[in-house]
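Is L-tyrosinamide placement plausible here? Inputs below.
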Amino acid sequence: MADDTVIDPKTKSKPKLERPKLYKVILLNDDYTPREFVTVVLKAVYRMSEEAGHRVMMTAHRFGSAVVVVCERDIAETKAKEATDLGKEAGFPLMFTTEPEE
Ligand code: TYC
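Reply from A.M.:
I modeled the complex. Tokens:
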């Protein structure tokens, strides 16, 4: 006799493929921090080339803000603070913030 019993599992296991949410680091424009200083900070903290740093700085200068990088939350927050602190230590109101990516 053929065994045609169908087992219907009551609990379906959900594959664990969730990735952690990513965060954007945003550079905000201000009227006081020298352009060259902003570029230096982007090069030092985010390992950007002179060209990339200058481009991101000019985007914030022209449009009010610029996305610097998208990464895991801890790294985004640590580096945003590091970059903001470099400005503060030099007496500038330079500001890097973070926000979750949509
Ligand atoms: N707006 C500044 C100036 O004219 C330069 C600047 C650019 C400051 C980008 C902050 O995120 C910034 N000196």
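Short version: The beta strands are 22-28, 65-72, 95-100.
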